[in-house]
């Protein structure tokens, strides 16, 4: 099995991709442990602050020591220089808010999953023609599940995951899966700023378990 297929299968099997960023290394690692204990085996860490690369490097180290089978992805990749830095740090997959052709050219030949954010058929076609197989619908709250329903038949060979605006409720998750997505991305709705600030790792673990249970009930 290729690495791209392994990452794709892992994200689809769990049905949700949690994503978060925290400037504090300890908080970052404790959230990662909470998600792993909940049953998560693929996580997106977002490159949105000065500490992101050093925190991510530490996450890889802790994963290697404590968390067999956990795949660590990096989000908010906007140029090839960022992709190179996180490739060297050991990222298993890469996610962008938009499609960057140079990033696709750098990663896909290395058998690394690249999931770009797209919000128009033109962007999706461009990504598909570059070898992308897993599309992030972004921003999900602006596009809505109706957009997914309208385009899915045009792109039978692609997998889709909305990020932004997907709630932790069964109604919200179900609406997207019924529309044809393969997984949902969840950031602040799951790993909220309030929970991070309170260092409430138990609630993060329990809420994640609930989301996983909802998704399994829909399959």
Automatic annotation (TrEMBL):
Statement: the UniProt record of this protein carries the keyword Lyase: yes
UniProt GO MF annotations: (4S)-4-hydroxy-2-oxoglutarate aldolase activity; 2-dehydro-3-deoxy-phosphogluconate aldolase activity
Keywords assigned by UniProt, alphabetized: Carbohydrate metabolism, Lyase
InterPro entries linked to this entry: Aldlse_KDPG_KHG (IPR000887), Aldolase_TIM (IPR013785)
Matches recorded under Pfam families: Aldolase
Similarity comment text for this entry: Belongs to the KHG/KDPG aldolase family.
PANTHER family the UniProt entry points to: 2-DEHYDRO-3-DEOXY-6-PHOSPHOGALACTONATE ALDOLASE-RELATED (PTHR30246:SF1), 2-KETO-3-DEOXY-6-PHOSPHOGLUCONATE ALDOLASE (PTHR30246)
Protein name: 2-dehydro-3-deoxyphosphogluconate aldolase/(4S)-4-hydroxy-2-oxoglutarate aldolase
Phylogenetic lineage: Bacteria, Pseudomonadati, Bacteroidota, Flavobacteriia, Flavobacteriales
